[in-house]
Amino acid sequence: MENKTLGQKASYIFFEYNALVMLVVLVVASSFLSEAFLSTQNITNLLRQLIPLLLVSIGMLLVILTGGIDLAVGSVAAVGGVVLVMVMNGNADGGAFWLILSVLAAAGGGALLGAVTGAFVAFFRMAPFVASLALMTIARGIAYIISNGQPQRFDREQEAALILRTFGSKSAPIIDLAWPIVFGALVIAFFYVLMRYTAYGRLTVATGSNETAIRLAGIPVARYKLLAYAACGALSAIAGVVVASRSGVATPASGVALELDAIAACVIGGALLSGGKGTVVNTVIGVLVLGLIGNIMNLLSVPAYPQQVIKGAIIILAVLLQGVGRKDARV
Predict the structure, then answer these.
(1) Euclidean distance between CA atoms 36 and 210, whole angstroms
(2) d(CA 107, CA 310)
(3) Euclidean distance between the first and final Cα of the chain, in Å?
(4) Which 3 state secondary structure label does DSSP give 153?
(5) What is the mean pLDDT of the chain?
(6) What is the pLDDT of residue 96?
(7) Contacts (Cβ under 8 Å, ≥6 apart) of 275
């Protein structure tokens, strides 16, 4: 009986932390499969590439915790990048202040688009899938309209553009390595504290766990849903800013299928699409798992199409492990 109890505990720990186990296995396997995996250049590139997905995935987690979904994040990221470049290019002499203003304009636009989705979901009781699908199309159209369907490039003579390019290029190796780590760590720390130690975080989770009970307790459920979608939109727009800073150009076609990777990262991290379960730390692990899968397959020169099949299989495996873990916990 004692052995069975210990076995159940071990099984519970394995299934509860299956995303972390998956991450460790991938790191070990990748280090053996490719000598270039642990190189500074590869780790730097991996961290830089994962920042946009990290931002969008944390925003998606907030929405999923309320029992919703946001399919518009990729389109909102495109809007954020285009708005950034166009606002910056509107002032040829702009410096650091103009750069900050441009980033705030992009984030504000993303928050507004997210709030529109949230308003339809929270106040008009529209299905999150339908509302966000409509906003996905609308936001993509806005990106094409304000850019006239053309890629928007930074004016390289601007001080603001030069500052932004420094953080997105390979011209400053130390900064190039440090900024994604520092920026990503700050974002993770902020939302970890927000969701774990504040009333907002606890009530957001409770909204997705048992909305009826929360509503009967007098909690303004609609407000928390609206805030979740607005935050998701803002984070998505900032992700578009990061992408534009790396490439030096913002295109209205960017961010396609970004919502799928964000949802996958949340699911791999153990979030329930029905709401009420999910953590920032586990979502970060999900982002790292997805990033490592793509990174090692690129190092091994695996074609793009098989990569999609493998990613899909990993997602199915993660969901199956979660299901087995929940059944094991009830035994």
Answers:
(1) 47
(2) 33
(3) 14
(4) strand
(5) 85
(6) 72
(7) 64, 65, 66, 67, 68, 207, 208, 209
Count each helix (H run) and each strand (E run) in the chain, helices first: 14, 2
What fold characterizes domain 19-324? ABC transporter involved in vitamin B12 uptake, BtuC (1.10.3470)
Sequence-ordered strand ranges (E) for the chain: 152-153, 249-250
Task: Assess contact for 238 and 109: CB atoms under 8 A.
Answer: no
Quote the pLDDT of residue 10: 61
Domain range annotation of the chain: 19-324
Instruction: State residue 142's pLDDT score.
Output: 97
Q: Which two tokens stand for residue 46?
A: 């991996």
* Spans of the chain, pLDDT less than 50: 1-2, 168-175
Distances (CA, A) of 18 to 13, 24, 33, 70, 316: 8, 10, 22, 25, 13
Query: Count of CB atoms within 10 A of residue 101's CB?
Result: 15
Task: Please tell me the pTM assigned to this model.
Answer: 0.90
CB proximity list for 189: less than 8 A, separation 6 or greater? none
Question: Is residue 5 within 8 Å of 13, Cβ to Cβ?
Answer: no
Whether the CB-CB separation of 258 and 77 falls below 8 Å is answered with yes
Type of residue numbered 97: F
Per-residue pLDDT of 81-139, as tens digits, reads 999 988 888 775 666 777 788 899 999 999 999 999 999 999 999 999 999 999 999 99
Surface-to-core class of residue 34, CB atoms within 10 Å of its CB (0-12 exposed, 13-18 middle, 19+ buried): middle
